[in-house]
């Protein structure tokens, strides 16, 4: 009987470790997607993209390409802040990440274009 208990406890711990590892991997993936979306939006805000799409449209396109959902997009001059969400398949846990992109603060101060 003790042997069965040890096997059950080991199996439960293995499943918990797998779920935790998947949640950490999903958090990293969603954070990377947020970074990519913010950078794409900042390029559009700076006029570096010739397709005419606005910053938030570019962020949404980048988010979709990374299999996450854009939940928020704020543009202040050349600085864009986005929030994206994704979910861990095994747990169904929703993971949220935010990112901001734009010119460095020193460049914003010189041009007067940023916040």
Low-confidence stretches: none
For this structure, the quaternary state is single chain
Which percent range fits the helix content? 40-55%
Number of helices: 3
Question: What is the distance, rounded to the nearest whole angstrom, between the alpha carbons of the first and last residues?
Answer: 67 Å
- Strand ordering within the main sheet: 1-2-3
- Secondary-structure element sequence? HHEEEH
Morphology call: elongated
Largest sheet: 3 strands, antiparallel
Cα-atom Rg, whole angstroms? 20 Å
**Strand tally:** 3
Q: Which percent range describes the beta-strand content?
A: 15-25%
Structural class designation: alpha+beta
Topology of helices and strands:
Layout (H helix, E strand, L loop, with lengths): L1 H44 L9 H11 L3 E8 L2 E9 L6 E8 L3 H7 L4
Antiparallel strand pairs: 1-2, 2-3
Helix pairs in contact: 1-2
Summarize this structure briefly.
The protein is of the alpha+beta class. It has one domain (2-111). Helix content is 54%, strand content 22%.
Write a structural description:
With 115 residues, this protein is an alpha+beta fold. It has one domain. Helices cover 54% and strands 22% of the residues. It contains three helices and three strands; from the N terminus they run H-H-E-E-E-H. It has a three-stranded antiparallel sheet. It starts with a helix and ends with a helix.
Keywords for this entry:
115 residues; alpha+beta; three-stranded antiparallel sheet; 3 helices; elongated
């Amino acid at each position: 009987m003790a042997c069965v208990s040890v096997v059950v406890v080991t199996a439960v711990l293995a499943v918990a470790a797998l779920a935790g590892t998947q949640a950490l991997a999903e958090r990293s993936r969603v954070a990377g997607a947020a970074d990519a979306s913010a950078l794409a939006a900042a390029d559009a805000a700076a006029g570096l993209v010739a397709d005419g799409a606005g910053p938030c449209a570019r962020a949404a396109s980048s988010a979709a390409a990374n299999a996450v959902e854009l939940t928020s997009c704020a543009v202040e001059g050349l600085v864009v802040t986005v929030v994206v969400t994704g979910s861990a398949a095994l747990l169904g846990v929703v993971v949220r990440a935010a990112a901001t992109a734009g010119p460095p603060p020193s460049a914003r101060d010189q041009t007067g274009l940023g916040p």
